[in-house]
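Suppose a colleague, Dr. K., hands you the sequence of a protein chain of 122 amino acids and asks what its three-dimensional shape might be. Before reaching for any lab equipment, you can write down a predicted structure in token form. Begin with the sequence itself:
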Amino acid sequence: MNHIILELLFQKTKKIMKIGIILETKELEKAWNAFRFAVTAKKQGHEVKLFLMGEAVECEGLTHEKYNVDEQLKKFVEVGGEILACGTCLKSRQLDSTEACPISTMIDCVNVVVWADKTVTF
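The predicted structure, expressed as tokens, is then:
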């Protein structure tokens, strides 16, 4: 019973943050952890925007039996997370914008950093 009361008090007093995440790698474990972090933050009620830069724009569809990046990316979208993808990085790889990863600009990346209370990079 005390645990429930403490949890309710914590939920009422915890600060909702704006978290910006910049992901620059498609390395399986790092990308997987970045999306897991983003999903967890969203589930805790935080606002989260994730900017994909460099090879990270290739994360959509990236699967592995242990580190299923695409599964975490989809979970992030399902919980209401916002993903932005560097347009120049997409174009240099001959990739198109998708609903999950819309083309964005460096201005958008700067705006994510300015918007966020905290910015995390992976």
